[in-house]
Amino acid sequence: xxxxxxxxxxxxxxxxxxxxxxxxxxxxxxxxxxxxxxxxxxxxxxxxxxxxxxxxxxxxxxxxxxxxxxxxxxxxxxxxxxxxxxxxxxxxxxxxxxxxxxxxxxxxxxxxxxxxxxxxxxxxxxxxxxxxxxxxxxxxxxxxxxxxxxxxxxxxxxxxxxxxxxxxxxxxxxxxxxxxxxxxxxxxxxxxxxxxxxxxxxxxxxxxxxxxxxxxxxxxxxxxxxxxxxxxxxxxxxxxxxxxxxxxxxxxxxxxxxxxxxxxxxxxxxxxxxxxxxxxxxxxxxxxxxxxxxxxxxxxxxxxxxxxxxxxxxxxxxxxxxxxxxxxxxxxxxxxxxxxxxxxxxxxxxxxxxxxxxxxxxxxxxxxxxxxxxxxxxxxxxxxxxxxxxxxxxxxxxxxxxxxxxxxxxxxxxxxxxxxxxxxxxxxxxxxxxxxxxxxxxxxxxxxxxxxxxxxxxxxxxxxxxxxxxxxxxxxxxxxxxxxxxxxxxxxxxxxxxxxxxxxxxx
Length: 507
Known about the structure:
Pfam families: Kelch_KLHDC2_KLHL20_DRC7 (PF24681). It is a single chain. This protein is of the alpha+beta class. It folds into two domains: 3-11 and 372-506, no CATH class; 31-369, Neuraminidase, CATH 2.120.10. The protein is 25% helix and 28% strand. The protein has helices at 3-26, 371-413, 441-468, 474-506, and strands at 35-36, 39-43, 46-54, 59-68, 73-74, 80-82, 96-100, 106-110, 122-126, 131-133, 143-144, 149-150, 155-159, 162-163, 172-176, 181-184, 198-201, 206-210, 218-219, 226-228, 236-241, 246-251, 253-254, 259-261, 264-267, 273-277, 280-282, 292-296, 301-303, 307-308, 319-323, 326-330, 343-347, 354-357, 359-360. A hairpin with a 6-residue loop joins strand 19 (218-219) and strand 20 (226-228). Helix 1 (3-26) packs parallel to helix 3 (441-468). The model is unreliable at 366-377 and 405-456 (pLDDT under 50).
């Protein structure tokens, strides 16, 4: 196979992969079961949902999908994208996950309940190529029902939880997601063992731990009441200093929430408040089942915030992520899927009043934009990017074409000097290849050329995919993809004719 044929084959293969990927992203998907105990990880404006527990089927599920939060959406019409075929992790629930790694764009999964004894303690997922991996880091056993927190240095803090022997723990495991090694934190003055607590990283590099359980409990999934056992109080919160590796306890005041577990905690946009939502309640002697509370971090005072919008049913064993100006609640138990969406949105941009809404708006927390203007700009930018893509594709084609012509001419000029070195002429940074052997001469040129081709093709693929994902209709996307494919194929035909003519002249 000639290099020209190989180049054409690679281009066609990448174009096919792009079209398949775009088609998959356009295929609607809806999770088949009510999930709880799943993980929800935000990476590069995609909210990844992995596995969980089916309360009606009484089993772990094996599903992997994401929600694109780079675009506006309504919670009644969610466009999930299914990645279940790429899921290499055994079915599990009550694991924990974070976004970590050297570039802060890798999903790290730890622990979980599973019937598969081969399940590793740690898995990683690379969203850039949709591949799972099992890093070779040993030394700890898998735990579950805990909340992992990652700091700004890529350290994954895993405190407490439940062990495989159903014992409650209060040890602090620390996974370095950059160097892939384990460490341990102090347990001096640490809270009593517990699981299903709330945890959040504060702006001062401290992690706050709230509530949870330290005994086996039974929960009514409809009322969210704990019928057997009890949750721990929220009259105290616990702070772990990731810088100094130390613990301290803080007493709270105000309208203290009832004992609860399986709730979510997030940090407010100004970094001065903790917002908790939902949970399973221990309220045999109280009537407080209020779902939403705020802890003021300046004085550790609890209060119930002012709320507007249609208030949803409370949930437990769900997940909450801060995305833009919203607290995004995903799945859990305590709601009817035929009535309420799997996703809840709470606008937390105004500390004086939080708003339940069904519309995810891309405007920043500090100001709002006119929706029509945003849509128009989206179309205009999409058109401009597509135009740039076509022009860029043409220049990539011309670059490779000129490169091949230069190589052919240079070989003709140096045919009688075959023992001398050949030099790749390229507009890209030069890769020098030095050889003392004439026998390896052609192999070295091919390798260098292949590296440049791979680089160009990767950039070309990324630009095509990015442009096709703009806010234009699905029909127009297909039409543009087909036209682009035809243009490239036509260019290849012309290139083959041109190369053939050059070869004939040379002969």
